[in-house]
């Protein structure tokens, strides 16, 4: 075997040995018990007869400041407390401009889109373009330790 052929095969072998490592590094390893997921509490997220479904707990909201649910409800939902009124707010966090997820800014009293600068009030109304449509607001209530949202 020629030296060049041998070195090519060694190179291919080394490259192929790194591919599984690269693939594993790109996969999400977050599970319900991982430290990155602070919401390990299991709740029944099925939709009740009244249309509400549990998407989090009061403990979770107090600990994290917000609850974002992208899996259990028909639409993405962010739940937080309005700092002025202490009322619960449930809103669709997808910016109506191009669908980026807005970030909760309690100090600035707004929801801000990190992509193009749109800003929304806590009632979902556009405060700053380029978005021209308001965010969807959902009915939300607390029952015991559960936060219930009705996503239309």
Write up what this structure looks like.
With 152 residues, the protein is an alpha+beta fold. It has 2 helices and 10 strands. The strands form 2 sheets. The chain has a 6-stranded antiparallel sheet. β5 and β6 form a beta hairpin. The longest helix has 24 residues, at 3-26. It is elongated and about 80 Å long. Mean pLDDT is 85; it is low at 28-39.
Chart the SSEs and their pairings.
Blueprint: H1 3-26, E1 53-57, H2 58-64, E2 67-69, E3 77-81, E4 88-91, E5 103-105, E6 110-112, E7 119-120, E8 126-128, E9 137-143, E10 146-150
Antiparallel strand pairs: 1-10, 2-3, 3-4, 4-9, 5-6, 6-7, 7-8, 9-10
The helix fraction, in percent, is: 10-25%
Total of DSSP H or I helical runs spanning 4+ residues: 2
Let me know the number of strands. Answer: 10
Strand order within the widest beta sheet: 1-10-9-4-3-2
Low-confidence stretches: 28-39
Largest sheet: 6 strands, antiparallel
Mean pLDDT: 85
Task: Briefly summarize what is shown.
With 152 residues, this protein is an alpha+beta fold. The protein contains 2 helices and 10 strands.
Q: What labels describe this entry?
A:
26% strand, 152 residues, alpha+beta, elongated, 2 helices, six-stranded antiparallel β-sheet
């Amino acid at each position: 075997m020629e030296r060049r052929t041998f070195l090519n095969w060694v190179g291919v072998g080394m490259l192929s040995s790194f591919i599984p490592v690269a693939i594993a590094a790109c996969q999400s390893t977050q599970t319900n018990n991982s430290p990155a997921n602070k919401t390990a509490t299991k709740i029944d997220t099925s939709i009740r007869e009244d249309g509400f479904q549990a998407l989090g707990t009061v403990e979770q909201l107090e600990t994290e400041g917000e609850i974002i649910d992208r899996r259990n409800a028909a639409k993405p939902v962010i739940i937080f407390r309005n700092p002025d009124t202490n009322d619960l707010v449930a809103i669709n966090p997808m910016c109506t401009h191009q669908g980026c997820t807005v970030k909760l800014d309690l100090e600035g009293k707004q929801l801000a889109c990190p992509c193009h600068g749109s800003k929304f009030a806590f009632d979902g109304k556009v405060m700053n373009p380029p978005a021209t449509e308001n965010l969807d607001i959902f009915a939300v209530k607390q029952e015991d330790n559960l936060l219930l949202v009705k996503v239309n």
